[in-house]
Specification:
Elements (H helix, E strand, L loop, with lengths): L2 H7 L3 H15 L8 H14 L5 H7 L3 H11 L10 H18 L3 E6 L5 H12 L6 E7 L2 H9 L1 E3 L3 H11 L9 E4 L2 E4 L8 E4 L11 E6 L8 H14 E9 L14 E5 L4 E4 L4
Parallel strand pairs: 1-2, 1-7, 2-6, 7-8
Antiparallel strand pairs: 3-5, 4-5, 8-10, 9-10
The protein binds S-adenosylmethionine.
Length: about 280
């Protein structure tokens, strides 16, 4: 099936909704709040790769757990980078972290939807360079258990190095990305010892009960995949996870403006999507 045929496939919305109900029944994942257009396109792509021509054919196949895992990988977008949106990391480094660590003995940081962990690795590098890592408690979570295993291993393909370098250069001019990784065959393995202190946990932003008492929550490039109602629910959870005066960081194309909770936050950097919780001080 070519891409043109995928467009032509035009999966019927009713069938997608039935599929979503089946997934919820069988696996407990709730995709009903995902933006239907992009979700359907990802399902169509999965079907193309696996030569599946209809939802009726797909439904029994993903009853198999292994097949479902690869389906989950395909429908959740896991794209990420080291120091993604470097200007945000510069802002954190210069304006947020020094103050946050000065005011708190321990700083609790949650990377919600951390994918394969480059965002967590970036934070560990940043805090180590600022000599603040020993005061941090870091949690990385994602819905996708397979991608979480990669986050734990912090092992990436070597061809990513030039891109890592480009972003790192903005945050720490003159530093070499290769110094933070060991090269093992065609892989890069993050080698900072303290990374083993990071906790990783499977966590579904839609269904799981949230955490509390975090000083900084990064939830970047995941809200875009949800409809407005589900975004509201997730923002409520993130709000509940934050200490008063804690910081929330969203992705470059995300915002809490227009959401019910927006008056609970003040914008610290519009360009970098950094917000501060100011209710309950
Ligand atoms: C595009 S990646 C973003 C990774 C990283 N935060 C970044 O900005 O580079 C989106 C991640 O959200 C995760 N995700 C999707 N739905 C989720 C849910 N309901 N709960 C938790 N994580 C979810 C996906 O598995 C994926 O790893």
């Amino acid at each position: 099936m070519s891409s043109t045929e995928i467009e032509a496939l035009n999966l019927p919305e009713g069938e997608i909704k039935t599929l979503i109900d089946n997934i919820k029944k069988n696996y407990g994942f709730d995709f009903s709040g995902y933006a239907i257009g992009s979700f359907s396109r990802r399902i169509a792509r999965f079907m193309e790769v696996n030569k599946i021509t209809s939802i009726a054919q797909l439904t029994p196949l993903i009853k198999d757990k292994v097949a479902f895992t690869s389906f989950l990988n395909a429908v959740t977008v896991n794209t990420t980078e080291l120091f993604r949106d470097p200007s945000m990391w510069v802002f954190l480094k210069d304006k947020i972290l020094p103050r946050l660590f000065e005011k708190n003995e321990k700083v609790k940081i949650w990377h919600a939807a951390c994918s394969s962990g480059e965002e967590v690795v970036s934070m560990v590098i940043l805090l180590k360079e600022l000599n603040l890592l020993h005061k941090a408690e870091i949690l990385g979570t994602d819905i996708n258990t397979e991608i979480l295993e990669q986050a734990k291993a912090a092992t990436y393909l070597s061809w990513r190095l030039p891109h890592y370098q480009k972003n790192l250069e903005v945050v720490f001019p003159g530093k070499k990305a290769e110094n933070y990784f060991s090269k093992v065959e065609n892989k890069l393995v993050f080698k900072m010892d303290e990374y083993k202190n990071v906790r990783f946990k499977n966590f579904d932003l839609v269904l799981d009960t949230s955490f509390s008492q975090f000083n900084l929550v990064l939830c970047r490039n995941v809200l875009i995949y949800f409809d407005q109602e589900q975004q509201e629910n997730i923002i409520l959870k993130l709000n509940g996870a934050l200490e008063p005066k804690g910081y929330l960081v969203l992705g470059a194309q995300e915002s809490i403006d227009w959401h019910k909770s927006s008056d609970e936050f003040m914008s610290i950097s519009n360009d970098n999507k950094i917000y501060r919780k100011f209710k309950g001080q």
